[in-house]
Amino acid sequence: MDAQEFEQAPVNPENLKPARHFAANYSGEHVAGTEFVIGATFVAWGVGTMDIILGLLLGNLLAVLTWTFICAPIAVDTRLTLYAYLEKIAGPGTIRLYSVVNGVLFCILAGSMITVSASAVRILFNIPPQVNWYPTSIGFVLVALVVGAVVVVISAKGFKRVAQFAEICAPWMVLMFLVGALALIPVLVAATPGLDNIGSFSDFRRMADLHIWQGTSDELGFWHVAAFAWVANLAMHGSLSDMTILRYAKKYQYGYFSGLGMFIGHYFAWIFAGIMGAGAGLVLQTSVTNLDAGAVAFQALGAAGILAVIIAGWTTSNPTIYRAGLAFQSLNPKWNRVKVTIITGSVTAVISCFPFVFTRLLDFVGLMGLTLAPVGAVIVAEHWLFPKLGLTRYWASYMQRYINWAAIIAWGGSLLFAYLINVSGLHLFFLLIPTWIFATVLYVILASVSGARLPHAEQVISEKEAQQKRKLKEQAFLENADSNTELTVVNKRLKQMRVYRTVALLSLFACLVLALATYAGTYSLEGFRTTLLWPSLLYFVSATLWIIDKEKHDSEIEKTSSNQAA
Fold first, then answer.
1. Among the four residues 23, 154, 222, 313, which has the most C-beta atoms within 10 Å?
2. How open is the CA angle 534-504-491, to the nearest 5 degrees?
3. pLDDT score, position 9
4. DSSP string spanning 340-373?
5. Which H/E stretch holds residue 509?
């Protein structure tokens, strides 16, 4: 466990993380069990094939740009959590209100992820699918609590362990969506009149139009899909919750790693999940709306599908509970983060017993993002717009305001504005831009008349000096670290690492070969589902040993580097 999670202070230069941590974290967190749910929901919506292909392309691109050019630069510039920075802008009273709202929303979201994992475990115990808002089986409740306990343990370990867990799971999870789709495409092809195989995109579209994205909806189309893909993670990027993660980044360009999550997880995984959902529905002769994530994955991947959904739920709920723990810990900096995370995770596990969010996931993530978006607008306005408008950053802090009423009114007022335009007919997914603009304008006006126009010269000079000193120290450290990038520790551990990595990669390749053979018709679907588990287990053993040895190797490099510097 990291000795210091920097809940209130800026992250120290020596605690900044390499690029691979962010690549693994984003690809792991956003290739999740909920992708099975969302992918199947698009099928149930009745949107068209091209609405999915092009709408997801645009929406996910907008999400990556929001992460990279809004969230990441502020996180890297301040090195603070969202909660610490918001307290600096809006006062301790405001952050307490926000932390409660944010923490509760993240608990509910994490609970839905645990529910997804439990939907796979329940298959092992012959527990019926949980498709109502309440549990219908005491067995499912017990399963959800046990799965939740595992998540809590990992989340309490801190950012480093959460990232390492994702680093192990992400490559395999990505592959499972692909191989599951490949395995079930022959089922869909066989049910398509006049189609023997897929030899072109037009063949794929013909199959997809008939069985997957049928284009039967008159209300939902391209723009709805694009808007949802953008706002699905609005709480993390536009509302700046991922400052908590990206404050560890060496440079803001690490925000581009969100593209691994968006295009692998929220583009291809949603498409592959739709294929699996439609294929599972054909195999079971039922509607996809009657299947949970566990049922879909089991029909596509067999026992490995159960493992996939369990792990997918974990890789998303881990960082989500970590964020929620930081939110509640910010209520009182003296509280121990680990204990707060354990308590938060325990409450989340109880929430996971009630699949109410799982059954309305798309609406919930839209509402969650919209609820928090005005606070992101306030932070962006103060961080970037205030200097350009001649207003003073952190004016409320300089004036020792317990509550920044300008921020509170802008938050509440913009939500009221969003409600009014929603009941007037604007769809939930389209509320972001008008609500953000309204919150920004309202906050600038209110802050201007509340004290932001005052110079606060002495405090501003002190703040600039402190920030310049911190940034110069960070720059010197990173330049020195770059000069030691060629340093290596050649020993027996390096050879072991190469062996473990080779076995892990060969295991993934074996999974892909099985899927391709099934797709080509030279291997049966039943044989594929039975066999896939074994190379999957081999991957997890070898990948775990690889990560463990890599951590030890990195520690040896750091130790050697420190000794040479001394």
1. 313
2. 140
3. 82
4. HHHHHHHHHHHHTTSTHHHHTHHHHHHHHHHHHH
5. helix 492-520
